[in-house]
Amino acid sequence: MKIAILSQDPSLYSTKRLKLAGEEQGHEMRVVNYLRCYMNITSHKPTVFYNGKPLENFDAIIPRIGASRTFYGTAVVRQFEVMGVFSANESQAISRSRDKLRCLQILAREGIGLPVTGFAHATEDIDGLIETVGGAPLVIKLLEGTQGIGVVLAETYQAAKSVIEAFRGLEVNILVQEFIKEAKGADIRCLVVGGKVIAAMKRQGAPGEFRSNLHRGGHAQAVKLTPEERSTAIRSAKAMGLRVAGVDLLRSNHGPVVMEVNSSPGLEGIEKATGIDVAGKIINFIAKNATPTKNRDRIQY
User: Is 213 annotated as a binding residue?
Assistant: First the structure.
């Protein structure tokens, strides 16, 4: 098979691992900077160009779209879809998961466990917004934040009010969520591929840090999931329409709650924590489902 990895940086761990895993399985792998792609949008011969040449005869693509590049990145993915190329994650599912508010609303509609979450526009409604999630302490999140950036723990009512007013003064969109104290600064990342959890790790935040992101000094170890946690992760990925997803859970007193569903989950932390060849399993899934092209909509889960 001929597979393109849509990534801005070929030196990233996840990009390198996917390329190597594909080559080890005998596939022709190519890393393509999607920001350097341009498109001919036409009905008779839609084309994606890269370095002045058309990208032709690809059987599949693996989108590794940065959060800040979602609009253009998904446009490139969508163009490949118009050309009949199989995508590990489809453009619509990527866009859906990147909108944190929309993601939570979809999960809520499916009855999936979530932390109590509030959203409002006007600063005049701050008091009601804080009461909606049960008061302080609470977590305030920028909708556009990633890797723990733009996430604040407000331990008192006044602190929460001040932070919300400051964010709203900058005219950015925020969510407020209940603080799951019993999680003790830890979360669980479940890697879902083709409707199955193939790996899971527990991430523990650094001392004094309520965020568990490995980029912020946290550490990770393999974890055994409960049946309910496994089911929640699978249902969450399915609700978002993602074939490959990182689903982040917290263990609360009322069961697992979903914090985020990621369409381009990093592979380094979970491969090193679990020893599982996650990249190889992603390539296996693509090889199983990408051919023949005419059957691309009949995905085998």
Answer: yes
Residue 220 is inside which H or E element, if any? Answer: strand 219-222
Question: Is 16 assigned to a binding site?
Answer: no
178 is in an annotated binding site: yes
- Global pTM value: 0.87
42-94 confidence digits (pLDDT tens): 878 899 999 999 999 999 999 999 988 999 999 999 999 999 999 999 999 99
45 is in an annotated binding site: no
* C-beta of residue 168 within 8 angstroms of C-beta of residue 124: no
Task: Give the class (CATH, top level) of 2-96.
Answer: alpha beta
141 annotated as a binding-site residue = yes
| 28 labeled part of a ligand binding site | no
Spell out the CATH class of 182-283: alpha beta
DSSP assignment, residue 294?
G
Domain ranges of the chain: 2-96, 117-179, 182-283
Per-residue pLDDT tens over the stretch 190-205: 999 999 999 999 998 7
Is 9 marked as binding a ligand? no
* CA-closest candidate to residue 221, choices 201, 207, 192, 204: 201
Please tell us whether the domain made up of 117-179 is placed in CATH 3.30.1490.20: yes
